[in-house]
Structure formats: C-alpha cells, structure tokens
Design a protein that fits this description.
The chain is built from 8 helices and 6 strands. 57% of the residues lie in helices and 9% in strands. The longest helix has 44 residues. By secondary structure, the protein is mostly helical.
C-alpha cells in the first residue's frame, strides 16, 4: 500500500480554500484509488472549515471516492453527508480503505469457490441440454423403418380381419346347410322354401365376402402408396443435408453443399453444383 499526503491547513480563515485545492490536486494527479478528507478532534469552531459550502461541493464533485474522517465519532460536519463514506475517526478511515489481508484472502476464497461451483453447474446444464438435443435427432432411415413397420402392422391387421370375416361367413353357411338338411325330411313345399332361403343367405354371404375382399385390397393399395419404400421403388429419392435434415426446398441449399441421397437400395453422397428455385424454373444460382 502506498500513502500520498496532500498537506493543507484544516482550520483558520484560509483553510476552506486550501482544502478545496488539495482535493482538486488529488483528482488532477489521479495517483491514488481513494481519498481520505479528515483531521483530528477539536471544538466545533476548529472543525468549521469542513462545514464550508466550497469544501462540501469539492467533496461531492470528486471523481475519486472520498472517505470523510473529521474529528471524533460524535462529531458531524457537512462533509460527512456528501462524502461516499463517513468514518468515525481518521484511524477508522485507514481501516476502511485498507482491510485486513487475511479477511480479504478468505473473501477471495469464498468468491473463487462460488465461481467454480457456478462454472460446474453451467457446464453440467449445457451438457444435459446437448444430450437431450442429441436424443431428439432421428436419422431419416430410422424414420423410414418406423413408417415401414407401422404400415406392415396395418396390412397384417387388415388381412387378419378379412380371414376372420371369411371364417364367420363359412360358419354361417355351414349352419344354414345343416338346417336345410334337417328340413329336407319335411313336406316338399317347406323344403323348397328352405332351399330358397339357403340360396339367399349364400348369395348374401358371398356378396359380403366380395365387398370385404375389395375393401381390404383397396386399403392395401392405399397403404402401399403411403409406404416410403414403395415411393423409393418407383424411382424417387430422399435428399438430406449435412445436418441430417430432409431437404424439401432448393432454397435451403447452395452450390458446394454436400448432400446424401437415399435410394430404394443404398445411399450415395453428392455435392450441389446447381440450384434451381422452385418458383422460377430455369433460373439457376
């Protein structure tokens, strides 16, 4: 620590002007970090220079932080109220501007610990966010596989439903045939009625089976059109950018960009040499 003294009278007729000069000199030199404006104890008349308006204004306008230490702890002057800090005595002012080294070391240690904990917490938080973001990324092939599995499951369920309907119709037809056989022993008019009814039921069952089969075939064709693999089999391809996202708009690419092209069987890499905007065919960039 370096102490610079700006000597000046602190009481008497010329004291206020000399105190103002000393404060301004300290600010002009800017060679200290803090300025103590003070004196020892005395009567109210002895301390009156620090109640002077010019001194109060100089303290208030000082660019350097000012500690007012005028007289004893029970003494108060205007200087005390315009300074940055009031010290009870000049000795107290020295203690304020030069805190105990051991205490400062402990405080620095506490701050360093807080900083380290904050750094670890921030790093852990960012790592967690990165992990969550990585889990949310889905490769296009994985999405295609999931869609393929879902559509395959729907086809299997539709086929099973068709088989169940066919079995139910067959059971109903067998029941009608058995009933018809039992009725054949009855008089001929009754047998004819039963035969006619059996024929009607048979035709109704066949028509229903045909409608179900047609519906199942239509649904299967619709699902086949929705199957990404079927789209690829028809000669189409899926283009993904360097970030793994599917490219839907040529405006998201530029010359020199690397892309991956997924075909029905396999994948190739390519570099963009020309980009044609979707809304202006023929204009390349």
């Amino acid at each position: 620590m370096r102490v610079v003294v700006y000597p000046t009278p602190v009481q008497g007729d010329g004291a206020p002007a000399r105190i103002v000069d000393a404060i301004r000199t300290a600010n002009a030199r800017a060679e200290v970090d803090v300025l103590i404006v003070g004196r020892g104890g005395g009567s109210i008349e002895d301390l009156w220079a620090f109640n002077d308006e010019a001194v109060a204004r100089a303290v208030f306008e000082s660019a350097l932080p000012v500690v007012s230490a005028v007289g004893h702890e029970t003494d108060f002057t205007i200087c005390d109220f315009v300074a940055d800090v009031r010290a009870p005595t000049p000795t107290g002012a020295a203690a304020l501007v030069c805190p105990d080294g051991e205490s400062m070391s402990r405080h620095v240690g506490v701050l360093a610990g807080r900083l380290a904990r904050a750094g670890r917490h921030a790093a852990a938080l960012r790592a967690q966010r990165l992990d969550l973001a990585a889990r949310g990324l889905v490769h296009p092939k994985a999405r295609l596989d999931a869609e393929r599995d879902r559509i395959g499951g729907l086809v299997v369920r539709l086929a099973a439903a068709g088989r169940r309907a066919h079995v139910a119709a067959a059971v109903a037809t067998d029941a009608l045939a058995a009933r018809l056989a039992r009725e054949l022993g009855r008089p001929v008019p009754q047998a004819q009625r039963l035969a006619s009814a059996a024929d009607t039921f048979h035709r109704a069952g066949s028509d229903r089976l045909d409608r179900l089969a047609t519906r199942v075939a239509s649904l299967a064709r619709g699902l086949a059109h929705l199957n990404p693999s079927a789209v690829l089999d028809r000669g189409y391809a899926i283009v993904t950018g360097a970030d793994g996202q599917i490219v839907q708009d040529s405006a998201s690419l530029a010359r020199g960009d690397d892309v991956a092209i997924t075909l029905a069987r396999g994948q190739v890499g390519a570099t963009v040499t020309r980009v044609t905007p979707g809304d202006t065919p023929g204009s390349d960039r």
